[in-house]
């Protein structure tokens, strides 16, 4: 699937930057174009893969490159005011070559949580391609203003995009882990899962052809209908013999490749599907009642078989109750593991979202305290002499 990715705010820019690194490393060519938008100049300067001409600084007249200080109302305002600056960068995207736009943002800060929904609405008004969101929820320990921002942004973002895929930091940060190290690991998890999902069906010259093809239309159909999505992932390393194609013995005896144990290959696939569905999802939820699902099995083509994928797909149907469960394989020659990525779209039973909705209601009772915290954050971004402080992470 070919995407135009737009990273909004600090977290969004870092994730898009990591997607570009993933493309370079794997040759998957998912990102057809990448743009980073921010109100903080320092955050844009910290990116390494997004081209400089594709980094857009907005809100200069209001915040002078220092960021909006977790004020997502201000983030939305400056995005509305400077939407022409962003559109100028988007005009350089060959939209006839992309399947969809993906707007990536952290939902706890000010720029991303406020500006990403504004941009999504703008894109949907102008373009016919689907506009998806990838929103990252803040951890519950990051402060009241960040939780309130996420509660407000979630309600707006999910309404403005064709589908909102969510990653919940609260379920992924490890106890005692540094902020910088935690986000670096989280971003890698995001890119690994979504990289395999969006990479399915992108076949280059000389690549293996999937036995059961998953192409961009399958992903688009699964995400159609709006709502919220989560992604599960599980992988298993191949044995030494499997990875080497039979090892030295087969070469000396004239053999080409070891015989495939079909039963073992099938069982491994079905086991990975269960782990992907019942393990850590990007947004924890009860999978029963999921409206649509897509299973992608990735790995060396000889260890992906139709029987295992079909069994996994039927198991997902039973667990979710959905009759819209698609599945297929993503051959990756030379891979050292077999992976299962499961996209669950139109999920309903999500405790974290209920918590956010409750926070949004309760916040009205102490809105003045929250605004005071937000104003303090904004003032702290600029020192007395006007110099910028170091990025938070």
From TrEMBL:
Its main location: cytoplasm. GO terms for cellular component: cell division site; cytoplasm; microtubule. The keyword Cytoplasm applies. GO terms for molecular function: GTP binding; GTPase activity. Pfam families: CetZ_C, Tubulin. GTP binds at residues 10-14, 110-112, 142, 169, 187. InterPro entries: CetZ, CetZ_C, FtsZ/CetZ, Tubulin/FtsZ-like_C, Tubulin/FtsZ_GTPase_sf, Tubulin_CS, Tubulin_FtsZ_GTPase. One of its GO terms (biological process) is regulation of cell shape. Residues 2-195 form the Tubulin/FtsZ GTPase domain. SUPFAM superfamilies: Tubulin nucleotide-binding domain-like. Belongs to the CetZ family. Involved in cell shape control. This is Tubulin-like protein CetZ. It comes from Halalkalicoccus jeotgali (strain DSM 18796 / CECT 7217 / JCM 14584 / KCTC 4019 / B3). The gene is cetZ.
């Amino acid at each position: 699937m070919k995407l135009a990715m737009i990273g909004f705010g600090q977290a969004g820019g870092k994730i898009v930057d990591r997607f570009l690194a993933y493309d370079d490393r794997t040759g998957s060519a998912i990102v057809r174009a990448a743009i980073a938008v921010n109100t903080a100049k320092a955050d844009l300067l910290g990116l390494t893969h997004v081209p400089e001409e594709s980094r857009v600084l907005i809100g200069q007249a209001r915040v002078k490159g220092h960021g909006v200080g977790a004020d997502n109302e201000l983030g939305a305002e400056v995005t509305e005011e400077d939407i022409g600056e962003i559109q100028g960068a988007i005009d350089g995207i060959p939209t006839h070559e992309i399947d969809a736009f993906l707007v990536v943002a952290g939902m706890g800060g000010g720029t991303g949580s406020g500006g990403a929904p504004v941009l999504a609405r703008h894109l949907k008004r102008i373009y016919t391609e689907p506009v998806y969101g990838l929103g990252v929820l803040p951890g519950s320990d990051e402060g009241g203003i960040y939780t309130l921002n996420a509660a407000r942004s979630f309600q707006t973002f999910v309404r403005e995009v064709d589908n909102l895929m969510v990653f919940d930091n609260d379920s992924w940060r490890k106890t005692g882990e540094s902020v910088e190290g935690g986000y670096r690991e989280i971003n890698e998890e995001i890119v690994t899962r979504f990289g395999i999902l969006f990479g399915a069906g992108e076949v280059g010259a000389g690549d293996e052809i999937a036995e059961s093809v998953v192409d961009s239309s399958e992903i688009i159909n699964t995400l159609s209908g709006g709502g919220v999505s989560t992604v599960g992932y599980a992988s298993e390393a191949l044995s030494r013999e499997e990875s080497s194609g039979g090892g030295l013995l087969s070469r000396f005896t004239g053999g080409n490749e070891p015989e495939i144990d079909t039963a073992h290959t099938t069982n491994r696939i079905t086991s990975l599907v269960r782990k992907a569905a019942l393990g850590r999802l990007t947004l924890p939820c009860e999978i029963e009642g999921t409206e649509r699902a897509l299973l992608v099995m990735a790995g060396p083509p000889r260890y992906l078989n139709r029987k295992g994928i079909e069994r996994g797909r039927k198991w997902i149907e039973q667990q979710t109750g959905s009759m819209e469960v698609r599945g297929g394989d993503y051959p990756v020659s030379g891979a050292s593991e077999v992976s299962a990525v499961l996209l669950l779209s139109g999920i309903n039973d999500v405790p974290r979202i209920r918590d956010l909705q409750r926070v949004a209601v309760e916040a009205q009772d102490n809105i003045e305290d929250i605004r005071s915290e937000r104003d303090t954050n904004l003032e702290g971004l600029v020192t007395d002499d006007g110099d910028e402080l170091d990025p938070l992470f």
